[in-house]
Request: fold
Amino acid sequence: MSASDQHPGDTVGPFADEWTTVACPECGAQAEIEARSQVAATSGWVELLKIRCLFRHWFLLPEELV
Ligand SMILES: [Zn+2]
Reply:
């Protein structure tokens, strides 16, 4: 859904102002993104999102799967 507009050379900054919700992969409830981090993968930089839903399920997902 999201366009890829990442700059691997950039430092990882705070994303506190960003408020995004996604559907929980387990129950489909609304989940909020609690944290983001960028990790190096074979195909380049991947942004991992930590999400937690209303029922306290939490997951670490690559952004491309959200
Ligand atoms: Zn859930």
About this structure: Residues 24, 26-27, 29, 53, 55, 57 surround zinc ion (CB under 6 Å). The two ends are 8 Å apart (CA to CA). The chain has a mean pLDDT of 81. Residues 24-65 form one domain.
